[in-house]
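Methods — Computational structure assignment.
A single polypeptide chain was analysed. Its primary sequence is given first, followed by the predicted tertiary structure written as structure tokens.
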Amino acid sequence: MRVLWITNEPLPEALGLMSGQKAVSDSTGSWVHALSACLPSAFPGLELTVASPAAGVSQLTELSGKDIRHILLPVFGRNDVYEQRYEELWRQVRDMTDPDVVHIHGTEYPHGLAYVRACGAEHVLVSIQGVIHRVAEHYFGGIPVSEIAMSVTPRDIVRRDSLFGQKRRVERRSCLELEMLKSVSHVCGRTAWDREAVLAVNPGLVYHHSGELLREPFLSGRWSYESCVKGRLFVAQGHYPLKGLHRLMAAFPAVLASHPDVTVRVAGPAVVRGDAFSERIKISGYGLMLRRLMRRYGLKGRVEFIGSIDAAAMRQELLSCNAFVIPSAIENSPNSLGEAQMLGVPCVASRVGGIPDMIPDEGCGLMYDFDDREALAERVTQVLDLSAQFDGSHVRDVASERHSRETITSGLMDIYTSICR
């Protein structure tokens, strides 16, 4: 079976081949990377080609990996604007690969839609990663528009990158996503929430359930209370309002009342910069709002932004924290939550999107309503109080079954076979 994947970015192997390195660090958390590493070896009759836009190439570029053929396309324009030049390139890729199935990973960016417009939707499967039109609805994370307007910084103006501009770009991408969902016949997702979201757009879609794999480092290791840093919370992302870091900061005072030593480490782009003038002028509007919250609630020295990290560092952060927190305004099924659960880490998450599918009971984590900061503080306090008795066996069993490599790879091959028919 010849399968063509269309991904949002090249796989780490392709980036390594481009740079001459054996491997490139994987910091995105993409389940696509994990799946590509095991699918060809699990099904020797599968011929897998992965095509992606890639910075640094000016024409179609073909690379041969260990088990995968990589095709890189030039990057055209912005990712929120449809670019017709992709259409001719996709016709060339189709002719080069003659695929039995075309699997487009994600609806976030318009290059996937360009394939459908150029080559049609026959034998095309689209994976639902984020649901962009729902993301657009929640992008401001409950922050009033007036507060956002008052927080526009010189950096936002110079870069044309205010939160208002970011939201408009997401809205433009969501229009292209809606066209994609109305144009294809087959989608695969993993939560009741994403199923409802896509079928509301196109009731005629054939919806296939397909789980996500986790990266290799998270398949071993086990969290323990004895080895964690007591009172340390960990948040995997917090650089834009949708991720809800501002809600966690607002809940901090109530947590500090019973746990005065609590701190939080935040991975991802650091939006709160140092006190030097050269750093302050680079701060974004959201970073300015977070800085104000830190000042208001006396959180200086309690919140540390550690930057983007790779899988090994992410694993260490999860094993070292006292609890993992996802305070997002919307999510589908965040990989970071699956990774934390696989390691047996105590978790707190907002009850939004597809998260309830990942936390079916309190043994797998504690949930709260996104708008209720008192409930967030209560849940964080509760998990810190109970973590000394938490062994994580139940959540690890649930996560292991949900992210089973054998189940997911064989199930995906069954989907491919049904589409071929």
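Note: Residues 2-215+403-415 form a domain with the Rossmann fold fold (CATH 3.40.50.2000).
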